[in-house]
Every structure is written in structure tokens, then in C-alpha cells.
Design brief:
3-stranded mixed beta sheet, two-stranded antiparallel sheet, mainly alpha, 63% helix
Length: 558
């Protein structure tokens, strides 16, 4: 790949048109990539809306199929976009949208989360927010219609997800919940809101709360009685979702056994480091020792946010001076405390023009007020630099080579999360985790990701339990996770519920790391004595977001 600007090809034009189409049909994705012209609306979440997206997907795939690549960049675009569009259609034909309800990444969360990324600096910004708030009722009515169609066709989510989402909604619509607090704190930098706008915000926020209340009633009264008793989705649907999150086809049974081996390896590595921290100590004893150390503890979310920002800024400055070429445009990364209390830690990329920078978010569970730096140092590297921020913001920056789809929307969880785990190990190799306590924290995260491979495949494919007592189920999964992570129980419970409702996503981290490491080995073999780690990283990241099968193929063949 060359860094010189290239003339957009016909394939680039199709890819760019697809971004335009998705921004209109799925405005929450448009908001994510900074398409502010769609910030005043939501997409059609009804069955008709899903059919409209499917029709647009087929049309785009037809256009792409008729074109021949003009260079290597085109070859990657056509290969990867075609694979994604075909998979989207397979999921649609499998009626996944009729049962798409879970605790982290379904329309129930997406509608609310759209407001987190909207500008709030001016009265005009709040006008747009008010208009989008007024659109919440119609969006949720469409979503209810889709889930109701699922009931009629016998395609429903698991009852556990229905109950958990209902509980989330209770928090959204409470008097001190998201919608009430969001508009109550409307404070543009330019001065006071006009009285008429303040009233509109209050009215539209109240309407959004009522609409979410209606969704909650539907979940409790209509969907819950019809929802599935079991959490497992079965091999066929699981395989589809695994491909969705990896952009690669894997042998699920082999991966399950590899996950067990990887988990055992993580346990052995942790045990050795625990002995370094406290001679003769078990992992649990070493963790207790570290948790009792006030020098390694942060109290309150303000202290957490400051520490995250300082750690991130230092990593950007130091790595940008040594191991990576980090353009000035992507050296800003904002560390944020999320306005929710769901338990997740996540990254959102910059807008296309970098007017909104990349952001690292921490959704702190209710009641959690203390945080351990030894446990979370690796998280900052995972979400920031050299992890998600370097990977995703670099793709956004690479306008000279990549079309807007490759820069802003392409890629998979396995590509992104696999790179972030790869980046954690890289930081260990570069000496940033020389403190045994920090390495133990990194391994705690790696152990959790290995455990998720075993748990996720075990539950959804109905594998025999590791203790030989029946097959994997939710109760065994929770017990298994509690035995393999050292985190607050609120976090563990949320994590397990997430895996049960989002099949195939949790293993994509560790499996993605495995594929990234394999791709590096293949690239090193290809380059021989000319192999350079820095060159490998640049070449891989310059591809932008791609599925992992495409990553391996492009690095090996192009």
C-alpha cells in the first residue's frame, strides 16, 4: 500500500455510497462516524425498515459484483465488503432481527446511547437533540413491532435477556435516570437555553421516558411469556454470529479445546507471577494483597478519570516518539466516565474530521467507588494507544488510501478486539508492565478472555460441563466466570448476561488475538530477514478495518 493519494475507483464509489446509505437508514451508525446531518432522527426499526436495509444490501452487493478491482486496495475492499454484505443477508434470512434483544448492543440500548455522542455546545446542538428525543417514541414503536413479529413467527430472545433489559429501562426512565438528568444538565457553552427550547427538551425527554416505559411494558407483558427458556442459540445461529464478529470462519470445536488450553496457560502464568508478588502466594492471595494496598487504589470516578487521562496521554507521547508513527490528528484521546452504570468499558472512534476525538468510556456499575490501578493499567492500553485508538483513529486518518467505508465502518469485533489484546502483550514486551502487579492485571484480563471462549461456545453449543455434570447453562457459566476472574460481582454478572445474549462476540477478543498473532507469523515468514515489527504494524493498520480472513489474506498475498 502506498501513502500517496490515489484516485477513487468505481469500487471506492460503491463503498462510499454504501456509507451514505447506511447513514440514512441507520442514523445511529451515522452519529457514531460523525454524520451530523442525521443526528435529528432514528432509523425505521420496524420489519419494513429491516426489509429496506436488506434490499439496499442486495443492490449494493450486485453493484460490487459487477466491478473489477484496479489495484490491491480495490481487491481488499471488494473482498471484504462483499463478505460483509453476504453475511448481513444471511443473518436477515435467519430472522436474527426478530429476536435481537440483549443487554448491551440491541436497539433497546442503541436508541439511548445515540445521545452520548451528540454535540452539546450550542443551543443549535440542543435543538437537534430535542428533535431526536421527539423521535424516540416512533423508533421504539417500530422496534416493538419487530419483536412482536418475532413472537408471531416463534423467533424470540431468551427470557433472561428480556428481564435484564427491562431492569435497564427502569434505570433509564427513573426520575434521576438518563433522560431526566440529560436534559436537566443542558448547559451550552454560549449561554442559557431559550425558554421555548428548554420546555421542548423537557417535553420530548418526558415523551422518550414514556416510550421506554411502553417498551418495558411490552417486554414484561407480551415478550417475556413467549421468550425462550434456554439461553443457548444452537450451532447454526452461533456459527453465523461467530463469522459476524470475526470476519472469519473457524472450527468451533477446535477453538473450544484451544480455549481450554489457553485458559490453563493463563492460570499457570498468573500463578508464577503471584509468587513474584508475594512468595508462596496463590493468585487469590496475591490479588488480596494488592487490593489491600492503598497506593494502588483510586477512590471515586473523578480520580479514575484523571488517572486514565494521565496514563493515556503519557502512552501517546512516549510511543509516538519511539515505536509508532502517530499523526498529530490522533494524539488526542478523551477519557470519559459514561452516563450509564452498566459495567462496560469501551471506545468510540473519532469523527471523520476529528472534530470529535476518539474517546475511552467507563460505565461504572452502581455502588462501585474504588478502582485498582494494577488491574486497569492494561485496560488503558487496550482501549487507547496502542490499542483501539491507534488502530481505529489511524484508519480514519488514512484518507489518502482508503474509502470512507474502509476508514469508518469496516472491520469486526475480532479485528478490533484481537488487535487490542495483541497490543496489551506488546506493551508487556516494551516494558510498560514490568511491575509484576501490572502484569498480573494484564493476565487477569487475558484469562477472562480465554475463559469467555470456553464459556460462550460451551453454553451456546450445549457442550458438556467441565465437571462432567450435565451441559453448560447460565448458572454453571456464572460460577465458572466467578472462579476465573477477580472482579466485582456486579461486573461478573453483567458480563455473563452479555455473553448469553450476544453469542459469538465474547470469544472474538481472544480468537482475534490468536489470528493477529498468526498473521504476524505468516508475514514474518514471508518477509524473512527483511521483517520489521514496526513495518508489520504500519502495514496491518494501514489496511483499515477488515474481517480477519481478509487481514490474513491481504498480508500474505498482497
Amino acid at each position: 500500500m502506498t501513502s500517496a493519494p490515489r484516485t477513487p475507483s468505481a469500487i471506492d464509489e460503491v463503498a462510499d455510497e454504501w456509507v451514505d446509505t447506511i447513514a440514512v437508514l441507520a442514523p445511529t451508525l451515522g452519529t457514531y462516524i460523525g454524520r451530523t446531518e442525521v443526528n435529528d432522527r432514528f432509523g425505521d426499526l420496524s420489519p419494513e425498515g429491516h426489509e429496506q436495509i436488506a434490499a439496499a444490501t442486495r443492490a449494493t452487493l450486485d453493484k460490487l459484483s459487477a466491478l473489477e478491482p484496479v489495484d490491491a486496495i480495490d481487491e481488499v475492499t471488494k473482498t471484504d465488503l462483499s463478505a460483509e454484505l453476504r453475511l448481513d443477508l444471511e443473518l436477515h434470512e435467519a430472522k436474527w432481527h426478530l429476536r435481537d434483544l440483549n443487554v448491551i448492543a440491541s436497539a433497546a440500548q442503541d436508541v439511548r446511547a445515540a445521545f452520548d455522542l451528540m454535540p452539546t455546545d450550542t443551543a443549535e446542538d440542543w435543538e437537534v437533540i430535542s428533535t431526536r428525543l421527539s423521535a424516540v417514541p416512533a423508533a421504539l414503536r417500530g422496534y416493538i413491532e419487530t419483536l412482536r413479529t418475532g413472537i408471531a413467527e416463534g423467533v424470540t430472545p431468551a427470557r433472561r435477556q428480556v428481564a435484564e433489559v427491562a431492569t435497564q429501562i427502569d434505570r433509564y426512565i427513573a426520575d434521576d435516570g438518563f433522560f431526566a438528568a440529560f436534559v436537566a444538565h443542558a448547559d451550552p457553552k454560549e449561554g442559557q437555553l431559550p425558554a421555548s427550547l428548554a420546555r421542548a427538551l423537557a417535553d420530548n425527554s418526558a415523551a422518550a421516558r414514556v416510550a421506554y416505559g411502553e417498551l418495558r411494558r411490552f417486554l414484561a407483558e407480551e415478550l417475556a411469556p413467549e421468550a425462550g427458556e434456554t439461553d443457548a442459540v444452537g450451532r447454526e445461529l452461533y456459527a453465523l454470529n461467530s463469522r459476524r464478529f470475526l470476519g472469519a470462519t473457524i472450527d468451533l470445536d477446535e477453538t473450544y479445546e484451544w480455549g481450554r488450553e489457553e485458559l490453563a496457560r493463563m492460570v499457570a502464568e498468573q500463578t508464577a507471577i503471584a509468587n513474584e508478588i508475594l512468595p508462596g502466594a496463590s493468585v487469590e492471595e496475591a490479588v488480596a494483597h494488592l487490593e489491600a494496598d492503598p497506593a494502588r487504589k483510586l477512590v471515586g470516578t473523578d480520580a479514575l478519570q484523571r488517572w486514565m487521562q494521565e496514563t493515556s496521554d503519557r502512552a501517546v507521547a512516549e510511543l509516538g516518539a519511539s515505536h509508532f508513527d502517530i499523526p498529530e490528528a490522533i494524539r488526542t484521546l478523551e477519557c470519559m466516565i459514561a452516563p450509564t452504570q452498566e459495567g462496560g468499558i469501551y471506545y468510540t472512534g473519532p469523527t471523520d474530521d476529528f472534530s470529535r476525538p476518539g474517546r475511552m468510556w467507563w460505565s461504572v456499575p452502581e455502588g462501585v467507588t474504588e478502582f485498582d490501578t494494577w488491574r486497569e493499567l492494561t485496560t488503558v492500553y487496550h482501549e487507547g494507544v496502542p490499542g483501539h485508538h491507534l488502530q481505529i483513529a489511524q484508519a480514519v486518518y488514512n484518507r489518502a488510501e482508503l474509502n470512507s467505508w474502509r476508514r469508518l465502518l469496516a472491520g469486526t469485533s475480532g479485528h478490533a478486539e484481537g488487535w487490542a489484546l495483541y497490543a496489551e502483550r506488546l506493551m508487556e514486551q516494551l516494558g510498560y508492565l514490568d511491575d509484576p502487579a501490572d502484569r498480573l492485571g494484564m493476565l487477569d484480563g487475558q484469562r477472562m478472555r480465554a475463559a469467555r471462549v470456553v464459556l460462550d461456545i460451551g453454553v451456546h453449543l450445549g457442550k458438556p460441563r467441565l465437571d462432567g455434570e450435565g451441559v453448560w447453562d447460565a448458572a454453571y457459566a456464572l460460577d465458572f466466570m466467578r472462579r476465573n476472574v477477580n472482579m466485582s460481582d456486579q461486573f461478573v454478572q453483567f458480563e455473563v448476561n452479555r455473553y448469553l445474549g450476544w453469542p459469538g462476540q465474547a470469544p472474538s477478543y481472544k480468537v482475534g488475538q490468536r489470528i493477529w498473532e498468526s498473521a504476524r507469523e505468516d508475514y514474518a515468514a514471508k518477509m524473512g530477514d527483511a521483517f520489521s515489527e514496526k513495518d508489520f504494524h504500519k502495514r496491518a493498520l494501514d489496511l483499515g478495518g477488515v474481517g480477519l480472513d481478509t487481514l490474513r489474506w491481504a498480508l500474505k498475498e498482497l
